[in-house]
């Protein structure tokens, strides 16, 4: 169950003017300096400051409600349980191994790390222990070092293929969210390939995206953004962003031959009224970020949004969200795929009590050989078949896992 979320009207910093609200030149300069470093040749189109962090956290609350509070898909949970159980079964020190962390999870484009801190609670409820790592191009939004607790944060460009190859297959579950404003159509495939470089065989790759082509602001079923959203979508096309990234990501995972691929779509129209109102606040803040970012980058960037001057853009921004009855909508795409491979083993579970220390020490010794009773075979008519002697070699490895091999003098015997 998701508790009620209090909607807070979060605005960007403003300096009051005599006639209307004006934005501080210092703020524009800060935005410009922070956003010139990005994955692509184009500057990042949103902000990476404290106000943007608040908007990202609000957006996370919206997506969490849309997902019913379950941030980790069920197939991923099942796989993580296998990884943890396999790690514990391979350990000789049973009591201590229950505290070890065998699972490694990475969140790309992590921002404030709020997704990682949220799944940590879900993992604890499931009895799963994991090492959590957050990666992002900028470190502006990372929590202060003294407040990161047991989550690690690192800077990483998702298009830096040599760096991903250097990291190698490390993680059992990789999550990435809302890269649609960052990557071009061509760069999406590079980003996905890089993610697979650091994903272990049998691990899951999980994208959550909100395609720009499915954004809308409506009133009584009629577009009501005043042209702001339409200009933003046109600008995205000029920048070669993928307005249908959700479907294209899924198609590429299928093309790569990933296992257990899933594509789930959740339309905000199906959600409760409180979630919709949260999105109205989020949409206004997001559009304000796009416009202030464009103003900071100069006249050419403004023209891409269809604004001839900064004054026109500011006037239009001041009117956002003022018309009652308007509603911002989007469709959340959750795309999942499993990397080929992985280790599978047959395990026999028994209900015996925990082994004593002496038994654990004995289990580390050489395997014992036990003679089993001769199996009985049905005799075929008119044929004298010699029954082979079968021996079972049983290594004692811990409490739950039992491996066995059948040794026979006849290679064709069963």
Give the second-level CATH assignment, the architecture of the largest domain: 3-Layer(aba) Sandwich
Biggest beta-sheet profile: 7 strands, mixed
> What oligomeric state do the depicted chains represent?
single chain
Q: Assign the CATH superfamily of the largest domain.
A: Vaccinia Virus protein VP39
> How many beta-strand runs?
17
**What is the spatial order of strands in the main beta sheet?**
5-4-3-6-7-12-10
**Structural class of the helices, strands and pairings?**
alpha/beta
Number of helices: 13
CATH class bucket of the largest domain? Alpha Beta
- How far apart the termini lie comes to 54 Å
CA gyration radius, whole angstroms:
28 Å
Task: Look up the CATH topology of the largest domain.
Answer: Rossmann fold
Region (Disordered): 355-391
Biased composition (Acidic residues): 358-387
Organism: Arthrobotrys conoides
Protein name: Methyltransferase domain-containing protein
């Amino acid at each position: 169950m998701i508790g009620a979320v209090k909607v807070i009207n979060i605005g960007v910093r403003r300096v009051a003017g005599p006639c209307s609200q004006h934005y501080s030149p210092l703020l524009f300069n800060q935005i410009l300096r922070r956003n010139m470093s990005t994955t692509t040749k184009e500057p990042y189109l949103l902000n990476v400051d404290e106000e943007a962090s608040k908007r990202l956290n609000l957006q996370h609350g919206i997506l969490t409600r849309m997902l019913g509070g379950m941030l980790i898909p069920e197939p991923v949970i099942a796989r993580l349980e296998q990884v943890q159980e396999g790690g514990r079964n391979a350990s000789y020190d049973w009591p201590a191994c229950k505290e070890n962390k065998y699972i490694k999870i990475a969140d790309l484009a992590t921002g404030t790390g709020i997704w990682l801190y949220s799944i940590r609670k879900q993992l604890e409820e499931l009895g799963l222990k994991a090492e959590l790592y957050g990666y992002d191009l900028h470190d502006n939004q990372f929590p202060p070092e003294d407040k990161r607790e047991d989550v690690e944060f690192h800077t990483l460009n998702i298009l830096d293929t040599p760096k991903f190859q250097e990291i190698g297959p490390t993680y059992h579950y990789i999550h990435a969210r809302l890269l649609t404003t960052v990557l071009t159509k061509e760069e999406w495939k590079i980003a996905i390939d890089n993610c697979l470089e650091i994903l272990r065989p049998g691990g899951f790759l999980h994208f959550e995206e909100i395609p720009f082509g499915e954004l809308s602001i409506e009133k009584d079923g009629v577009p009501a953004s005043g042209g702001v959203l339409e200009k933003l979508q046109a600008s995205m096309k000029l920048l070669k962003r993928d307005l249908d990234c959700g479907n294209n990501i899924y198609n590429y995972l299928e093309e790569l031959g990933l296992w257990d691929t899933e594509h789930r779509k959740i339309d905000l129209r199906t959600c409760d009224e409180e979630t919709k109102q949260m999105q109205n606040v989020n949409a206004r803040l997001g559009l304000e970020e796009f416009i202030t970012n464009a103003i900071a980058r100069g006249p050419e960037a403004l023209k891409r949004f269809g604004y001839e001057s900064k004054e026109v853009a500011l006037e239009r921004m001041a009117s956002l969200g003022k018309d009652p009855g308007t509603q911002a909508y989007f469709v959340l795409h959750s795309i999942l795929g499993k990397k080929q491979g992985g280790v599978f083993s047959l395990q026999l579970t028994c209900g015996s009590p925990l082994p004593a220390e002496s038994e654990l020490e004995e289990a580390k010794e050489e395997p014992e050989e036990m003679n089993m009773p001769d199996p009985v075979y049905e005799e075929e008519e008119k044929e004298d078949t010699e029954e082979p002697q079968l021996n079972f070699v049983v290594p004692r490895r811990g409490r739950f896992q039992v491996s066995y091999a059948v040794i026979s003098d006849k290679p064709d015997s069963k």
